[in-house]
Amino acid sequence: MSKFDSNFWSPTPISPIPTLARLREMVLERSEQRSPKWKFRVAPDLVLQIQAKLTTALLRFDGLALLAEGADLNMLLKPRNEIDRDYWRIKFELRAIVADQWFFKPKGCGWKRKADLTVFVDLRARLVTALSTRFDKLRPDMLLGSHCLCCGKGLTDPVSQARFIGPECAGTASANLPFIIKESVLAA
Predict the structure, then answer these.
(1) Which CB contacts under 8 angstroms, 24+ apart, belong to 32-35?
(2) Bridge-partner residues for 153, per DSSP?
C-alpha cells in the first residue's frame, strides 16, 4: 500500500453524522462495555460495517467498507479468505475532535484480486461522500439485516423491527415509542 500518495492516508474532514452520534449515545445508555456492529448498504455494490468505540473522551467509530458486484451482508460476516468473489475493502476510522468537526481516515486496504490502485482512491472518495450525505437520516433500505441498533441481537417482533430497537433496549414492547426512522420515511 505504499504506492498511495500521502493524501490517501490523511484524515479528511467530513460533515458531522448526527445519526451515528445518536446511535452511539443509545448504545452507551444501554452498556458502556459492548457495542454492536451496524451494517449498512450505501449502494448496490457497497456495504459498510460501523462500530462505535465506547470511549467517553472521544467520539470514535471503526468501520469496514466492502466494494463488490452484488455486495451483501454475508460478505461482511465471512472471513476474508472465504469470500468467493472479487472485492476491495477499506478499514477506516471516523473521529470527532469536537461535535462539529469529524474526520474520515483510512486504516488499511485489501482486495481479492490484483487491483488497480485507483479503485481504492475512488472507493475512498465514495465513502467520504456516502458518509457525508447518506447518513443524515437512517432509512430502512440502508440497514442489512434485522438487528437491534443498541445491542445487536436479532429482532423477530414486527414492532421491534419497525423501530430497529428490541423490547429490552427500548424498555417496553409497546408500539407507541418514538421511531429512529420517521414514519413518513417508512411509508415512502
Answers:
(1) 34/151
(2) none
Q: Where are the alpha helices (DSSP H) in 55-172?
A: 73-77, 118-133, 158-163, 167-170
Domain boundaries, the chain: 6-144, 146-188
Average pLDDT over residues 23-41: 87
Q: How many CB atoms lie within 10 A of CB 172?
A: 10
Query: Which DSSP letter does residue 136 get?
Result: G
Say if residues 139 and 122 touch (Cβ distance below 8 Å). Answer: no
Q: Are strands 37-43 and 101-111 parallel, antiparallel or unpaired?
A: unpaired
For the record, the C-alpha cell of 115 comes out as 487491483
How many C-beta atoms surround the C-beta of residue 161 within 10 A? 17
| Closest by CA position to 61, among listed 107, 29, 100 | 107
Asked if residues 23 and 51 have their Cβ atoms less than 8 Å apart, the reply is no
Looking at residue 113, the DSSP 8-state letter turns out to be S
Which residue matches cell numbers 469496514? Answer: 64
**Is the pTM of the predicted complex or chain greater than 0.90?**
no
Look up residue 62 and give its three cell numbers.
Answer: 471503526
CA 77 to chain centre: 14
Give which of 97, 100, 104 is closest to 125, Cα–Cα.
104
CA-based nearest residue to 39, from 126, 127, 149: 149
Model confidence pLDDT, tens digit, residues 110-158: 888 766 778 889 999 999 999 988 887 777 778 888 888 888 888 888 8
